[in-house]
Every structure is written in C-alpha cells, then in structure tokens.
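Tokens for chain A. Residues wanted.
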C-alpha cells in the first residue's frame, strides 16, 4: 500500500489538481538515518532537485552533488555554501562549460573530474582549484544498460589507463586533489556495489598520490516490487569501511568516506497522483487513461521501470464505468499523442498490466515510489506544464512547487 493516507491525497488533489507529486519527509529522514555511519552523505540531487527537498537535506547535515549550473544555483538557493563548509557542494561532470567554470570558481566548489579535457580546462583557468577524480573502474552495473556508468560502454569518468596521466596533470598544475570517486551505475545491487570497494583500494594504489577522501558514488537500490530486498546498509558500510581502512594503512593517515545516493534517499518517499479520465478496451488490453504522461513520469517509457499503481476512490464520484468488473488487469497510459506513453511496459516496450480494483473515471491513480527521477525528469512534451509538488511534514502538507502554466511556457517565445 502507498505510504500516504488516501484521504490526504484526495484533499491534496482537490486543492492543487492533478497530476501532482507528493513527498513524505519522514521517509526521507529515515533513509538518511540508515546511512549515518558514513562521514559524508552527499545527495545526488538529480534524483529530486526541488529546493525545499534540498533544504531538508541541508538541515539533516547532508551535503549535495550538482551536475549542472542549474543544480549549483539550486544548492545555493537552498542555503548550501562552500564558504561555510568547503565540502557542501561538489560539481560532478565529464565536461564543464564556461558559465559553470565561473560558478565553481566564484563559489569555491570542488569539481569531480570525469574527462581529461575537463581536467585541462579547470587546470588552465584556475590552477589550484580543489578537485576529485571520477574513475571509471572498468566495470559497471545498473537497473538498466542506460544507467550503467562503468565499463567500456560508458562515457563517464577517467579510465584506469588515463589515471596516471590525470594525476600527473593535477600535480603539474598544483590542483588540490581531494579524493577519488567512483559511481558504477544507478539502481545497482549489493554484490556489484561491494565489488566496487575492493577495486577502489587498487585504484588508490595505482594512482600513487595522496588523497583525503574516497567516494562510493551512488547506485544504492530502492525497493519497487514486493520481491525487491532492502539494501543491508550496515553490511554496505562495513565493506566500504574495510576498504577505507586498507587505504588509510596504505597512505598512513585518516581518509573520509563519502556516499552519494540519489534514489535511495527519495524514491520510496514520493508518489505521482493522477486522475482517471477514460477506460477503454482493445482486443488485447483494458486501458486506463490518466492525466499524467511520460512528460511527468518518464521511467516506465525510458527504462521499462515498474511503479506499483493503486486506485484511490473518490468518495463523491459515482459515474458508471464502461468496464464493470471489480478487479481487472489494466494497462495504464497517459494523455500524450504517442503510443509509448504507457506506464505499464517492460524494457522492450511490451505493454504489461497491473491489477486495479474497481477503477472508475474520476478516481485517482497513485504511482508509487516515484520520488526519485520522477519530477526531476519531467518535460514539457506536448506542451504540457510541469505538475506541482507537495510535501507532507508531520501530518501537514504544503506546496513546494506551483503548477507551471501554459503562459509560463509561452512567455519564453513572446519575442
Ligand atoms: N553519483 C553520480 C555521479 C551519478 O551519476 C548518479 C546518478 C548518482 C550519484 C546517483 O545515483 P543513484 O544513487 O540515484 O542510483 N534516471 C535514472 C537514473 C540515472 C542516474 C544517473 N546518475 C532512473 O530513473 O533510474
């Protein structure tokens, strides 16, 4: 069942309309607590970058990762400041444009370097800048090939072959090397994540340079289906802690251990709520059509991701449904003018079904576990405005992003 009280969701949709994103702060705080053993928890904000969520993270002592000028600006608006704490914001990328170079210099933001060209650019513009090296360890793993960020098919990171060269450039220019970072993929599993920590020890030895920190990257899995097992965060920490100790022995001093989750902190804390506008059947499927599409929640269309869907019956609604059965297998789709706009599909685009009980036009559908890479991956496709975001804190809800308007969209073109 959804973590939210159905009556609260109904109230929220009455006040803010549908589709709407809803987040539960208690779940986010609980996920943060599960990683407290790490010296630094750095939120990969691309998973859910609303500044109110970032503020919550900051209040909890969580640091932040930014991957664009926009994400840096969001971090600053949320109150992160590297002048107060030099670890607050790190910029991670494989390239850096001119605007972003200025921002990282102005705000003393360490840069996590993913390519030799990016390294040269930073070195030439600001020779003593603080940097991390993001290494591609030669293997990776994610919930989809599209989220695997290691190995020969990945555009990310500095390869092991280039690592000695990168270290030489860092030393030549006098860049301030903070640490070595690795991110093997998103939605990985315990086995692959633990494989990465042994490789980290070898990489530090290969780099043959002094560092102050290592980062595990993100990739910590969240649970989407009943079969998914919770990550054993204690064992995960212990394995990385052992790797850290080996590195400390090798370098002869203390090393900080960072973890950089996105999904793990927010996925299970958020839902997308939409309204059913249409029920129709074809020879193969009973379709439910809702007012949210892949412009809102892209993951099913992009990766074949599963989000458990539930019906919330609207008490006032009594219109007859075309399909009379109580419990049916439905394909759930959106309003977009594109046949791939289906929330129930596998990674090959084959339409699947979910069992929904007594769904009627006017009822709400809740797409669970959509807090990570939900709102943050939304687009304006078909000129549909971005949906509002609402947060629930200690039983009270409040709007944290207004619904975008069509005039907002058109304003950019009023030339
Ligand atoms: N660090 C780096 C350098 C990353 O590239 C990412 C994710 C993370 C941390 C956080 O990964 P997480 O802990 O969330 O797995 N849109 C996809 C996920 C793409 C992730 C991209 N990078 C999805 O919806 O599954």
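Reply:
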């Amino acid at each position: 069942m959804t973590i939210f009280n159905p009556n609260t969701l109904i109230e929220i949709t009455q006040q803010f309309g549908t589709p709407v994103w809803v987040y539960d702060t208690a779940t986010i705080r609980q996920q943060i607590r599960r990683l407290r053993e790490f010296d630094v928890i750095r939120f990969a904000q691309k998973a859910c970058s609303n500044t109110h969520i970032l503020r919550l993270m900051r209040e909890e002592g969580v640091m932040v990762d930014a991957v664009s000028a926009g994400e840096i600006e969001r971090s600053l608006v949320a109150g992160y400041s590297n002048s107060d704490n030099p670890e607050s914001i790190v910029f991670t990328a494989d390239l850096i444009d001119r605007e972003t170079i200025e921002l990282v210099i102005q705000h003393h933001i360490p840069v996590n370097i993913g390519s030799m060209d990016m390294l040269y650019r930073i070195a030439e513009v600001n020779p003593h800048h603080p940097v991390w090296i993001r290494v591609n360890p030669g293997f990776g793993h994610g919930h989809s090939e599209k989220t695997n960020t290691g190995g020969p098919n990945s555009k990310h990171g500095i390869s092991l072959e280039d690592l000695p060269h990168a270290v030489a450039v860092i030393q030549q220019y006098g860049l301030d090397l903070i640490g070595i970072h690795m991110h093997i993929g998103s939605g990985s599993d315990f086995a692959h994540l633990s494989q990465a920590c042994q490789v980290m020890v070898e990489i530090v030895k290969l780099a043959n340079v002094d560092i102050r920190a290592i980062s595990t990257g993100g990739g910590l899995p969240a649970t989407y289906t009943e079969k998914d097992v919770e990550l054993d965060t204690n064992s995960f920490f212990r394995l990385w802690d052992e790797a850290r100790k080996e590195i400390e022995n090798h370098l002869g001093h203390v090393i900080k251990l960072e973890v950089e989750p996105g999904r793990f902190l927010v996925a299970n804390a958020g839902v997308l709520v939409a309204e059913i506008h249409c029920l129709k059947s074809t020879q193969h499927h009973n379709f439910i059509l809702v007012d949210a599409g892949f412009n809102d929640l892209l993951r099913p269309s992009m990766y074949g991701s599963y989000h458990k869907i539930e019906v919330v019956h609207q008490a006032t609604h009594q219109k007859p449904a075309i399909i009379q059965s109580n419990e049916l297998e439905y394909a759930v789709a959106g309003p977009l003018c594109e046949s791939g706009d289906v929330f129930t599909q596998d990674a090959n685009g084959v339409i699947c079904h979910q069992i929904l009980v007594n769904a009627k036009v006017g009822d709400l559908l809740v797409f669970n576990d959509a807090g990570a890479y939900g709102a943050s991956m939304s687009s304006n496709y078909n000129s549909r405005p971005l949906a509002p975001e609402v947060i629930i804190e200690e039983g009270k809800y409040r709007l944290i992003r207004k619904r975008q308007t069509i005039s907002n969209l058109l304003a950019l073109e009023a030339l």
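The longest strand covers residues 270-281. The chain has twelve helices and 18 strands.
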